[in-house]
Amino acid sequence: MGYLLGVDTGGTYTDAVVLDAGAERVLGKAKSLTTRADLSIGIGKAVDAAISTAGISAAEVGLVSLSTTLATNALVEGQGRRVALVSIGFDEADLTKAGLSEALGTDPLIRIAGGHGHAGHEVAPLDTATLEAAVAKLAHEVDAFAVAGRFATRNSDHERRARDLIRAATGRPVPCSHELSAQLNGPRRALTAVLNARLIGMIDRLISACERHLAALGLDVPLMVVRGDGALISSKVVRERPIETILSGPAASIVGARWLTGEANAMVSDIGGTTTDVALLRDGLPEIDPEGARVGRYRTMVEAVAVRTTGLGGDSELHLEIDLGGRPLRLGPRRRVPLSCLADEHPGLVHDALDRALSSEVPGEHDGLFLIPMGGPAAGLPARDAALLERITEPMALAGALRSRLEVPALDRLVARGLVMISGITPSDASHVLGLLDSWDRAAAEKGLALFARRRVASGNRLAADPATLARMIVDQLTEQTVECLLESAFADDPAFAGKDPAELARHLLTRVGLTGHRGIVETSLKLGVPLIGLGASAPNYYRAVAERLGCRVVLPDHAGVANAIGAVVGQVSQKQAGIVTSAGEGRYTVHLAAGPQVFGERDAAMDALEAELLAEVTARARAAGAEDIHTSADRDIREIEVEGRAMFIEATISVTASGRPRVAHG
After folding, report:
1. 158: Cβ contacts below 8 Å, ≥ 6 apart
2. 209, 386, 399, 491: which could join 39 in a potential S-S bond, CB 3.0 to 4.6 Å?
3. Cα–Cα distance, 591 to 603 (Å, whole number)
4. Distance CA 612, CA 627 (A)
5. Helix or strand or coil: residue 340?
6. Is the CB of residue 587 less than 8 Å from the CB of residue 552?
7. Is 139 helix (H, G, I), strand (E, B) or coil?
8. Is 190 helix (H, G, I), strand (E, B) or coil?
């Protein structure tokens, strides 16, 4: 069997690892900075270095698998391309549910008549005339359309017709809500479709970048992508359903943590540049979130690992919170390019600007901040945003780019669209000052921290006396926020605290004094009851202090910095599909199939028909996803009530799973 190549593209680094799966050992690994303007550059450097250190030729690689946190990061940071939502049959109140209105933001909404009832019957005809007019107007202003219809999981006809009309008129991607989830709850399905549409361009660019480099190496092997539940899926399929890659990185890290440590029960925490991902490993398996993946503010309908993703990482932005009393700093949720990293590539720009700012008696509001253009389509930008973007043609000081305070909101919108990134001091810079890291320009980090340390807190005093003092404050703040993340996940996963707000419990006074082992009239103690597995390149720098605060054993495995890349190639291909049978009365059983509702006279015949269709569909999907040696299983959840001593059928949900190992090319 050929060797396995795993690649993980994160917000800061792209990792690659070569595995000898038969011997269960790592042959080679490498890291390279993620090059957002052209992802293939960072991928290529990491892949080439990993293959070289493994001592093999590229031709010996039989499978490549990719995991990524780019989709997760984009949702946490509120980034993504401009999309339009086509809402079929929903009313105004539906937009306020599930965070849909917030997620849509200023992106266009097309509301048209149509939709179905709970039994799958048409409530109103599809208003194709209004749809055609709206689509013609928006065709060149959005990158994709999302389509969501009322009760589309009971009858998808209107969604499919709207999708076909939009594709024919625009050629744009058009994900439908029924393709992403078989569950009810229209607003959440619409939210999932919007987020999916917003991620299509990003994931397509990532896969294309990987494919370009594999082609340059002469590799014609299967390319897989890690799904949010840890299973693998072919790159062709994931291009249509990029929403399934949210939590791809965390899922891969949990699989990698199990493979690296052998721990069966542990809290897994993976710190990257942008996010910290926390999940529970129970009996050797990751917990799956029954309510759907939660990322940042959004609860989607994508089946994924039960992970809490927080905008906290080595490259988190630093805020001065003068009203917090005793904790003046706060990190996240957005990522910034570390000053030390930017100075490595543009030393003249960064050092000149920092030196000028340090020579001034009064610190400026934007001192120590820089703008980096990221490229990409900018259709639909307001005039002020477009004018500002035109001036940001290369990395530059933020203060020099803004002509008035009116452009600050415009800059925020450009950052949210992923068209511009901001560089400033981060925990990575603090780690350089403290000697914990030695990757980039330490002198730039020291100057940036010296500048930030001049800021005033509520007492009127300076924030810190010198760069080293501020650096220790930043790392301590990262420790505190990481402890809060871990406790929040622990309270959420512990059944003893079911129904309680885990965020409130994690920050409760009794929790805080319990961690310090308070001894007074009342004595308290609190600790994490399972080991902590720390993953991520910077985990050894931070997680010993975190584990000490939590009173638990810490496991920092070899190759922890490439756990995601390892998890990317040790998983299985798996596809799952569910369907429902409802009943309007005895002798009338409705199967809600992809082609529309079908009525049967007998309950068992209806369930058998649904299971047969699901088996055929899920097997085909598993094969398309890259599986071989496919095994299937089916589960029936039948809901009945007893009426006058007789069982009355309400509905049945049938779930079918097909899984197998990924195809590996043989040399």
Report:
1. 88, 89, 114, 115, 116, 122, 126, 149, 152
2. 209
3. 10
4. 20
5. helix
6. no
7. coil
8. helix
What tens digit of pLDDT does each residue of 239-255 get? 888 888 888 888 888 88
| Residue 399, both tokens | 């203060």
CA distance 135 to 119: 30
For the cut 70, the answer to whether the pLDDT of residue 296 exceeds it is no
Residue-wise pLDDT for 417-469, tens only, equals 888 999 999 999 999 999 999 999 999 999 999 999 999 887 888 899 999 99
Distance separating the N- and C-terminal Cα atoms of the chain: 8
Query: 46 with 8: CB under 8 angstroms?
Result: no
Please state the separation of Cα 340 from the chain's center in Å.
Answer: 26
**What is the pLDDT at residue 325?**
53
- For residue 274, the SS3 value is coil
The first and second tokens of residue 288, run together, are 């799956």
β-pair partners for 294: 299
Question: What confidence score (pLDDT) does residue 432 get?
Answer: 97
> If pLDDT is split at 50, 70 and 90, which confidence band does 195 have?
confident
194: nearest Cα among 135, 144, 146 = 146
Contact in structure between 178 and 163 (CB atoms under 8 Å): no
Q: Which residue in this structure is represented by tokens 């990751």? A: 286
What is the C-alpha separation between 667 and 653, in angstroms, rounded?
44
In sign, the C-alpha dihedral spanning 533, 536, 537, 543 is negative
**543-39-277 Cα angle (round to 5):** 25
Query: Which residue pairs, CB below 8 angstroms and at least 24 apart, start in 589-592?
Result: 589/649, 590/119, 590/120, 592/120, 592/153, 592/154, 592/155
Question: How much helix, strand and coil, in percent to the nearest 5, is found in the chain?
Answer: 40, 25, 35
Alpha-carbon torsion 230, 26, 283, 72, what sign? negative
Element (H, E) at 123: none
- 4, 3, 6: which is closest to 561 by C-alpha? 6
- Is the omega angle on the peptide bond into residue 409 within 30 degrees of 0, that is, cis? no
- Given a contact cutoff of 8 angstroms between Cβ atoms, the answer to whether 265 and 285 are in contact is no
